[in-house]
């Protein structure tokens, strides 16, 4: 854990079920504010399921069930009365495959603020420009705001999705394999962007790429078969893991 850091996400004895299948086993973690936390582990180990519990994206899947506590910014997000729309404004998400809306670049970024009641055109213009700048995209497409988002390159589309998430001013940004479908140059740009965004946002990223996790994260959590095996400073996890299972995974002995 990073000494002296405020905790923005805390899970306690978190269990998650897809029907009778238990996908997460007693996950207890404390994630500090304005740090990058990487979730690593083999396919099917529960890391994406865990990520989606943090903004209740699993709610859209039938026959799922949650046990335990998920505290986000001081509140248990699974207690009754939680406004899920407000939660997802606070906890934004970027998916593995870029998913821009079939609208203009401008309308993609303005969509969230409009949903949350921003109607003033000049305010929307400011939000769009600021969000695209934060996503490292403004200089590339400032003259293409009226073009279809579908005409952008894959890497640009993914950064547009990041800009769209940032437009509603979240505190936390969840990223589920955000660069796995991109070429090396676009991947490097996303990694650079994560480094820039960590100054203003708490970022939790799922990645299969061990080198990427080592490069971008302050903290790393290793999941295996739905359990949290080890969690700590990335540098230690990748150089002196405490658990043999962690060492075997990061050295490529399995996974």
Q: What spatial form do the alpha-carbon principal axes imply?
A: globular
CATH homologous superfamily label of the domain at 7-100 and 172-250: P-loop containing nucleotide triphosphate hydrolases
**What's the story with the biggest beta sheet?**
6 strands, mixed
Number of helices: 10
Percentage of residues assigned to helices = 25-40%
Distance between the first and last residues' Cα? 25 Å
Portion in beta strands: 25-35%
Q: What structural class do helix, strand and pairing data support?
A: alpha/beta
Average per-residue pLDDT, rounded, comes to 94
Spans of at least 5 consecutive residues with low confidence: none
What is the number of E strands?
A: 10
Level-1 CATH class name of the domain at 7-100 and 172-250? Alpha Beta
Query: Largest sheet, order of strands side by side?
Result: 6-7-8-3-9-10
Q: Tell me the CATH architecture of the domain at 7-100 and 172-250.
A: 3-Layer(aba) Sandwich
CA gyration radius, whole angstroms = 18 Å
CATH third-level topology of the domain at 7-100 and 172-250 = Rossmann fold
Topology:
Elements: E1 7-18, E2 21-32, E3 36-40, H1 47-53, E4 64-72, E5 75-76, H2 84-90, E6 91-94, H3 105-115, H4 121-134, H5 138-141, H6 154-166, E7 172-176, H7 184-197, E8 202-206, H8 210-216, E9 219-224, E10 227-233, H9 234-239, H10 244-250
Parallel strand pairs: 3-8, 3-9, 6-7, 7-8
Antiparallel strand pairs: 1-2, 1-4, 4-5, 9-10
Helix pairs in contact: 3-4, 3-6, 4-6, 6-7
């Amino acid at each position: 854990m990073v000494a002296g850091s405020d905790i923005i996400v805390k899970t306690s004895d978190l269990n998650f079920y897809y029907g009778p299948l238990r996908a997460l086993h007693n996950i207890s973690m404390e994630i500090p504010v304005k740090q990058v936390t990487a979730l690593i582990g083999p396919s099917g180990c529960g890391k994406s399921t865990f990520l989606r519990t943090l903004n209740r994206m699993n709610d859209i899947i039938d026959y799922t069930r949650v046990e335990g506590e998920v505290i986000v910014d001081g509140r248990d997000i699974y207690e009754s009365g939680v406004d899920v729309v407000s939660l997802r404004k606070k906890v934004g998400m970027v998916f593995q495959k870029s998913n821009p809306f079939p609208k203009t670049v401008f309308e993609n970024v303005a969509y969230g603020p409009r949903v949350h009641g921003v109607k003033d055109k000049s305010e929307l213009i400011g939000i769009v420009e600021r969000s695209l700048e934060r996503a490292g995209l403004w200089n590339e497409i400032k003259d293409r705001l009226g073009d279809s988002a579908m005409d952008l390159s894959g890497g640009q589309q993914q950064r547009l999705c990041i800009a769209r998430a940032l437009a509603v001013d979240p505190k936390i940004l969840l990223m589920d394999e955000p660069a796995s479908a991109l070429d090396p140059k676009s991947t490097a740009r996303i990694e650079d962007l994560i480094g820039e965004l960590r100054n203003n946002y708490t970022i939790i990223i799922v990645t299969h790429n061990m080198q990427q996790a080592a490069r971008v994260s302050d903290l790393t959590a290793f999941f295996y078969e739905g359990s949290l095996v080890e969690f700590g400073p990335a540098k230690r996890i990748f150089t002196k893991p405490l658990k043999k299972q962690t060492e075997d995974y990061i050295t490529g002995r399995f996974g």
